[in-house]
Design goal:
Helices cover 18% and strands 40% of the residues. It is of the alpha+beta class. Strands 1, 2, 3, 4, 5, 6, 9, 10 and 11 form a nine-stranded antiparallel β-sheet that branches. The chain has an eight-stranded antiparallel barrel with strand order 13-18-17-16-15-20-21-22. A two-stranded antiparallel sheet has the order 7-8. It starts with 14 loop residues before the first strand and ends in a 5-residue tail after the last helix.
Length: 420
């Protein structure tokens, strides 16, 4: 590939020419610039199909250079010698030895970062470039987030592309340079999730591990694990109450034990098991002597409750992101065991919408589409490993109500009041 951003033999679906741009960190943050710092354009492997991307994640191997060009502030591009074989240019926290030996660059390189990813769509009626800027740096790789796009002539020099990209790269600045601002949650206060019931006796640890390996092997097309937050583990002891009246409040309230002796109170409102349910949390709740009924009678005097079995819940989460839409999801594998009747178990994989990475072109309408796609990928993986499962909306509340029909948990009807 030369300095002209065009490919002769593109597929009918279009090709995306990708360039990784290294530049002074002062292009993104308000720090003193280095006047001698160059802009380095690294031509990566082209991508077929012509798809757009809200995000690009590059591990070191993904930064492999097929061409190298220096882009001065003004003037023509200076091409460096073509690599005999592609080699990684960025390795964890800096340039690779291969790049430094090959490029033999002069000037101040210490301030250079993987600044932008340019995705140029060439085989379309109006060529355009997606501008993705650096959004996260981790030891395993770097994440780029789309902030803008611009049209341009088909045969546009890489230097012109870089210069135009720099003029729009500060769009959404504080959503990409401040990690605490990176996410937005649609439908706040509403849980959006699908469930897959596991019908076999399976190890949820092994299942989660196998699925993680599958995602990393790119078998979940369009999804990656959240860089730096790929896998999380959870354990809860939870005491449960069904809300049976009034009709507008039906659902359940649960007390989750915390290490400090307090509780997190979780309330869900829903008339039937479904995709969306209202969810409310209260943290730091104090309940003296575990007198949950007295607490509920005091705090919710207009509600009527039924005590349900308590349980332990172990959950292993794979946190994934759609590179196409920027939506983040949890693939959460649960094992529920009723306290006092541990043979009463529920194992599920929940696929839950969590939040959306802020980017140009955000769209809430694609959440349900992504959720369905990810659920089908989970089901495909379970089928491949021979795990019998079925899709449903079967809730923990329904499980506990079913458990109450079992002689194994009849002690609850004697020890716990029906309502307060």
């Amino acid at each position: 590939m030369d300095a002209q951003i065009i490919s002769d033999g593109e597929s009918a679906g279009g090709a995306v020419v990708r360039n990784l741009i290294f530049g002074d960190v002062a292009h993104q943050y308000t720090v003193a610039p280095h006047s001698s710092a160059p802009l380095l354009a690294v031509g990566l492997e082209d991508e077929s199909g012509g798809s757009e991307r809200a995000l690009e994640f590059l591990r070191p191997a993904g930064t492999a250079a097929r061409s190298l060009s220096l882009v001065p502030p003004n003037g023509p591009v200076r091409k460096l010698s073509e690599p005999t074989e592609p080699f990684p240019t960025w390795d964890f926290t800096g340039f690779t030895t291969e790049l430094e030996q090959h490029a033999q660059l002069s000037g101040d390189l210490g301030s250079l970062v993987p600044l932008m990813m340019l995705r140029t769509h060439t085989n379309v009626s109006r060529p355009y470039t997606e501008v993705l800027v650096l959004g996260r740096v981790r030891s395993i790789g770097v994440l780029f987030v789309r902030v803008a796009r611009f049209d341009h002539p088909a045969r546009t020099d890489i230097a012109d592309l870089v210069r135009q990209a720099l003029t729009v790269s500060d769009a959404m600045t504080d959503y990409v340079r401040i990690e605490g601002n990176a996410y937005f949650t649609y439908e706040q206060g509403i849980e959006i999730e699908r469930k897959v019931n596991l019908l076999d006796e399976v190890s949820i640890w092994e299942l989660t591990r196998d699925m993680w390996q599958s995602i990393e092997a790119r078998e979940f097309d369009g999804f990656i694990t959240d860089p730096g937050y790929e896998f999380t583990r959870w354990h809860f002891v939870q005491h449960n109450f069904e809300v049976i009246d009034p009709d507008s409040e039906v659902g359940h309230i649960a007390f989750q034990e915390c290490p400090n002796g307090k509780y997190q109170l979780k309330q869900k409102k829903f008339r039937e098991d479904s995709l969306r349910r209202e969810e409310i949390f209260r943290k730091g709740v104090e309940v003296a002597n575990r007198e949950f009924e007295e607490y509920l009678a005091r705090e919710y005097p207009l509600l009527t409750f039924r005590r349900l079995p308590s349980f332990t819940r172990t959950r292993f989460d794979l946190n994934v992101i759609s590179t196409v839409t920027g939506h983040c999801f949890g693939i959460e594998t649960d094992e529920i065991a009723v306290i006092g009747a541990p043979e009463q178990k529920l194992r599920q994989v929940e696929i839950e919408y969590l939040e959306t990475r802020q980017h140009e072109g955000m769209d809430a309408a694609s959440i349900d589409t992504d959720l369905d796609l990810l659920t089908r990928l989970v089901e495909k993986h379970l089928h491949k490993r021979g795990t019998v499962a079925e899709r449903s909306f079967y809730s923990k509340l329904s499980f506990l109500k079913d458990c109450m029909k079992s002689p194994a948990v009849q002690y609850y009807s004697r020890e716990c009041p029906v309502s307060v």
